[in-house]
Amino acid sequence: MTVQQTAVPQSVHRAGGEAHTSSPQRGRRVRARSGQWAAWAFLAPVVIYLAVFYAFPLFRNIELSVKDYTVRSFVQGNAPFVGLDNYVKVFQDPTFGPALLHTALFTVISIAFQFAIGKALAVFFHQNFRLSATLRALFLVPWLLPLIVSASTWSWMLNSDSGVVNSVLHTFGIAPINWLTSPDWALTSVIIANIWIGIPFNLVILYSGLQNISADLYEAASLDGANGWQKFWRITFPLLRPVSAITILLGLVYTLKVFDIIWIMTRGGPGNASTTFATWSYQLGFGSVLPDFSPAAAVGNLLIVLALIFGLIYIRTQRKQDIS
Fold it and tell me: How far is residue 179's CA from residue 74's CA, in Å, rounded to a whole number?
């Protein structure tokens, strides 16, 4: 009787010890699982947003480009699979060559002038003179205005008969120019408007980059006898390179898909004089009585590929700079 009474408490004691040692492990596991669920809960809105507004539209656009969609099949959803036939149709279209050239010219010229003027203004306003903040705020107006307002304003200014630009040219004895109706000037007109709209974006980003450059570097350069150009070339330009790279990349992606400015001012004309991939895709999909949804989607995918190529080039360049 005595042995049984002493054995039972020992077994209970061992079981209690095992429960005591396992309870901290279970607590840690519960906390780890709750932390994982919390992380997924915070991540879920971003994943849902990307899936709904990026992944699904991209998948849908690819599906449109590899099937032969008409208005009826678009509604019924029974379009036949045609593979790359829509891309071949786009490449063989007479509009492809001019649209590719106009897209390249529109993008490269716009980015070059936007970046150069934006950087010059950023350096200028970095001097922090008395009216610096006020003038800097005024330069943001083109960026804050709705694009339809900006494009309509430039259409009025460049009007052949009553535009203010031709009125100014007339005072200097220069003949009026058909800015929006001449094949020689239509693309130039939309490029000028797009440069004006994009300068404030470059100004803001590059000015923010200049704020991160220490003033001690400029003071040390002044003590060494460096002039303004030497300070810019030896200090500002190299230290602003990372910000400049991302500014150019964002400008490229934005400019490739510019549609509203061109469409409001010239509608891609006259003829195809100012047609880009963005306006051509819209014309194919919505600009005719019998829309071609599938070729329009193929042209849109070409724009995505171009933006992806520029993005990969930027990533590769940044990796080389980080390694060096």
Answer: 39
Alpha-carbon distance values, 34 to 38, 39, 46 (Å) = 6, 9, 20
In percent, the amount of the chain with pLDDT more than 90 equals 39
Contact 194, 109 (CB under 8 A): no
Radius of gyration of the chain (CA): 31
3-state secondary structure of 100: helix
Backbone torsions φ then ψ of 126, nearest 5 degrees: -70, -10
Residues 6+ apart with CB under 8 A from 113: 195
> What is residue 271's predicted lDDT score, i.e. its pLDDT?
86
In the structure, what pLDDT confidence band is assigned to residue 292 with cuts at 50, 70 and 90?
A: confident
The number of C-alpha atoms within 13 Å of 150 and in the hemisphere containing its C-beta is 21
Lowest-confidence segment of 34-48, 250-264, 298-312 by average pLDDT? 34-48
Band (258; pLDDT cuts 50, 70, 90) = very high
- pLDDT tens, residue by residue, 216-253: 888 888 888 888 888 888 888 888 888 888 899 889 88
Q: And the tokens for 32?
A: 């780890």
Which residue, among 313, 321, 308, 303, has the nearest Cα to 103 in the 3D structure?
303
Give me the architecture of the 86-323 domain, per CATH: Orthogonal Bundle (1.10)
What's the CA angle centered on 9, arms 8 and 12, to 5 degrees?
Answer: 90
List CB contacts of 89: < 8 A, sequence separation 6 or more. 295, 298
- How far apart, in whole angstroms, are the C-alpha atoms of residue 201 and residue 258? 15
Domain ranges of the chain: 2-65, 86-323
